[in-house]
Amino acid sequence: MILIKNLQSLVRINQGKLKKKATRILSHLNLKRVTVSLVFCDNKFIKKINKKYLGKNSPTDVISFPLNDTFNPNYLGEVIISVEEALSNSRIYNTSFDYEIVLYMVHGILHLLGYKDYTKMERERMGKKQKEILDSI
Prior knowledge:
Elements: E1 2-6, H1 15-28, E2 35-41, H2 43-54, E3 62-66, E4 75-82, H3 83-92, H4 97-112, H5 120-136
Parallel strand pairs: 1-2, 2-4
Antiparallel strand pairs: 3-4
Helix pairs in contact: 1-4, 3-4, 4-5
């Protein structure tokens, strides 16, 4: 199940379309009965989260919080996505806004599954998996 919360008003979010994309991402990863929360926000909101939980006083594109526990073992966690960063990065990298949002969803879900991107080797592994998923959906 995909839960969506829209906390921003910069861009209209098509929740139905995003739920379908997220479901395809989970399906590609063979995750059938899991729940993921997607939160769409602006830079002000994600900057506060980044500072509070990661100690970085700047906005970022995506932050993931793995939250599975014994109460609900099928709940993978929450992915917080800045639509403001997606807009900015779509201009910088000459991609579409939709592509950036889906990329952040994939990236965030991979983090929920334990993928890391701190070292070069981890970034390469995660990048390869991201490309595989993006190419398939």
